[in-house]
Write a structure and sequence with these properties.
This protein is mostly helical. Helix content is 55%, strand content 0%.
């Protein structure tokens, strides 16, 4: 039986209640658990939602991705990290330049998803 990944705090609480068998006390009754779970998932999601690019960000990201490069210079790394933090409402974090490129690739991929959402919604 595959475990369903929790979307937020509500799903986690539901799993704890089922694992401890506390759900037997409300079995067959409408206790409002589903509404409470959705409320908590929306209030405390495990995945952060992105805000939309503003016009300048949209244009600059398009220009950034048009230039195909394998290695980013310090200015490009700073740009990606700061834009990512702004769009995903996170604290700015700069990965170690001698460490794995995965964090930068992940940030770029997520920003590309936001960017491409405009292209997909224009049809």
């Amino acid at each position: 039986m595959a475990r369903k990944k929790s979307r937020g705090l509500g799903d986690t609480i539901e799993k704890i209640i089922k694992a401890t068998h506390l759900d037997i006390f409300v079995e067959g009754k409408d206790c409002g658990c589903e509404k409470r779970k959705e409320y908590l998932n929306n209030l405390f999601p495990y995945r952060f939602k992105a805000r939309c690019f503003n016009e300048d960000e949209y244009i600059s990201w398009g220009e950034f991705t048009a230039v195909k490069t394998i290695v980013l210079n310090a200015e490009q790394v700073k740009y990606v990290c700061e834009l990512y933090a702004s769009v995903f409402n996170r604290q700015v974090w700069y990965p170690c330049s001698s460490c794995s490129p995965k964090p930068m690739i992940n940030m770029i991929d997520k920003l590309d998803l936001v960017y491409s959402s405009y292209l997909n919604n224009s049809n």
